[in-house]
Amino acid sequence: MVWLVWMLFGTQVLCSCLAAPAGQGAGAALLSPSCDDAAVEEAADLALRQINADREEGYVLSLYRIVSAREQPQEITGSVFYLILDVVDTECHVLSKKLWKDCSTREAHSTVYGQCKATIYINQARNIAHLSTYECTLQPVPRRYISSICPDCPLDGSPTQPEYRAAAVRSLAKFNEESEETHYFSVLNVTRGSMQWVIGPAYFVEFLIQETSCSKSDSVADISMCEPLPPEVAKIGFCKGSVVNSRSQEYVRISCEIYSHQDPATEEEDKEANQTPGKSRQDQQASPSDPDPFSPHLEKTVGWVKILPPSDEDITYHDLRESQDEDKDRKPVPPKAVGSAHSSDGEKTQVNKPDLTKPVTGPIILPFPEEPSLSDSCPGKAKQAEGILHPLITRKPAAV
Question: Coiled-coil stretches, from where to where (predicted)?
Fold first, then answer.
């Protein structure tokens, strides 16, 4: 009888464990909060900030709308959010470290748009927001849409075309002549280029510049021959220039922002970041030496942004999935996911299942859910005025 009692008791304990609240641990059912929920809005804001902060090239992405949100409550505190976001690019380069809300979006004819999938852990109690993975697929607005609303607008071309490089060098010469910098700058690379016929061929360029070792107190015939300063001390800048040619004259314009490696953000941006849970800069996360036993052990953010070539067809959610499938070798896998994963160098490694008998030391992050939000409020409302982008971006997603 004793063994029967113990067996019944053990069965009761097992059943009580299986009946534990669904919001606990790695086996928790995913919730489908409203896409307009304040916590989801905050998670999307912080995820996009950290996506932009993690990148070293390209333009700051701005939130157009929240497409899908799934939430996984954690056994400790906080939740992991699995987000799908419609995004558009802005006029700010990522090296500016500006917040996406402080950047102006582009005119519709020159916009790059698409979607990002992001996994972010939010812990209000510990003031932590950590972006685990992200993947974004973007493309320029289809040319057939541009021709229908603005047939005379400048058409974007490949930044590698020699005429855009020449326009960048020509406009930078004006900056070097007029600026109060102590050294000359040279063109690092052209990031965007477009052409339009005005009174003659007009070239519009956006490009990065780097500080060289040549002093402006010396006469330099060819700036391209100047050696760049060491990376730890050299200034980097972002410029917008134009060169318009007529039969009798050349019109050159240039405006540049110079960034310091030591001070990429303004005091206002830092203040705003400090007022949000999990300050958006990864170096402000909890220290691994924190004595708190529930201090999360957070892995480095893994992610990528892919820009598709110009096309006359608009991308759909299905197209994004196909494009992402092509990038399986570099597709981010959550560090804490159950099963196999890929390390930062692409090598396959084994990840052990969470041992729930030991104290939880970090968030349990699952592979990105295949099923989008079940909430009727998703996709959410557009954050920007409707225009040509509205029919291109706003569409109900298929299963990821």
Answer: none
